[in-house]
């Protein structure tokens, strides 16, 4: 009878162990599931805190909590808005770079003019009439306007500003301006003499 009692005893000890193992697995699964749900909830709460449109008060729904679908949709809309803003800023940066390039070209030209005037302050003084100066200016402007008119589109302000700086970079290079001025001066010289 003692061995039978031992067998019963061993069965008695094994059964609670099996139940305990099942309970542990169930508890571990429940905890893992709760962690997953908490992580998802925290993710939605973080999105709601980060996305400005989720924080705006919607008086039609009062102070009710936003649904997960609304939080996701508002997040998607906000990301699309940010992409558009980024693209717009990249275009503005590109335009500003063109502005800087044009200003650098103008700066170099003005520095050359100032240096030439400092080197020869009296050269050409009182030797050219205002009419001749105007004719030179008009010749330069007429030549520039031809390329300006052919290159510039005025369908929108944005297109105009982009075209202007593109035109400046292409047609107002120091060498190009120098060639225009020399051409105008040669033309006036042949008219005067």
UniProtKB/TrEMBL annotation:
It comes from the Eukaryota. Residues 79-106 form a coiled coil. PROSITE patterns: BHLH. SUPFAM superfamilies: HLH, helix-loop-helix DNA-binding domain. It is found in: Cytoplasm; Nucleus. The keyword Repressor applies. One of its GO terms (cellular component) is nucleoplasm. Gene3D superfamilies: Helix-loop-helix DNA-binding domain. CDD domains: bHLHzip_Mlx. Residues 1-10 have a biased composition (Acidic residues). One of its GO terms (molecular function) is RNA polymerase II cis-regulatory region sequence-specific DNA binding. PANTHER family: BASIC HELIX-LOOP-HELIX ZIP TRANSCRIPTION FACTOR, MAX-LIKE PROTEIN X. Transcription regulator. Forms a sequence-specific DNA-binding protein complex with MAD1, MAD4, MNT, WBSCR14 and MLXIP which recognizes the core sequence 5'-CACGTG-3'. The TCFL4-MAD1, TCFL4-MAD4, TCFL4-WBSCR14 complexes are transcriptional repressors. Plays a role in transcriptional activation of glycolytic target genes. Involved in glucose-responsive gene regulation. This is Max-like protein X. It comes from Alectura lathami.
